[in-house]
UniProtKB/TrEMBL annotation:
InterPro entries: Flavin_Rdtase-like_dom (IPR002563), NADH-dep_flavin_reductase (IPR050268), Rubredoxin-like_dom (IPR024934), RUBY_RBDX (IPR048574), Split_barrel_FMN-bd (IPR012349). Keywords: Oxidoreductase. Gene3D superfamilies: 2.20.28.10, Electron Transport, Fmn-binding Protein, Chain A. It holds the Pfam family Flavin_Reduct. Its cofactor is Fe(3+). This is Flavin reductase. Residues 171-207 form the Rubredoxin-like domain. Transmembrane segments: none annotated.
Amino acid sequence: MDIKAFDKMNYGLYIVSTKSGDQTAGCVVNTLTQATVQPARLLVTIHKDNQTERLIEESGVFAAVALAQSAQMELIGDFGFRCSRDLDKFANWAHTEDENAVPYLTEQTVARYSCRVVGKLDAGTHMVFLGEVQEAQVLEEEDAMTYAYYHLVKKGLTPPKASSYRPEPAVKGYRCKICGYVLESDTLPEDFICPICKRGSEAFEPVSAE
């Protein structure tokens, strides 16, 4: 099987969020897609180890926003490479709540959707949720970011829990704990800034090629 054939499939880049009780969670996905028009329904696939997946299971609702092409890598770093169990991901970004009290971003996004789960499919490592759209709104007229644009222009990486993740060859150097960027070097300058998520050298850890 030529795994590169999947690179020819195009996707958008979204942040899916949910809330259960007083817990909120959100993550970056490239797996949100429209299933039907009437009724309006969306499909989304999320890793079972992800806090967002667990809270969607509990609440039965989720929101999603389409990221703008100009969205900052720091935002993608927070929502794509950090865990909602350890971080209030919405704390540093403009947001509001939908009719289900689910938070969603109001900056660096071009459209938003609010859904009620009406079906799900166990896909092994991931869960596929079918959501009936209760609210939908265009937020900005800017182009939405595609997964291809994220990789080719933004030089973004794929989180390990993403359904499209493929392990990279092992290298020796320093890895950013936020976004996964690897600096192939024997030393890490104190003033080094990650070119992907813009975090400092304190976010890096040594890695070995062994």
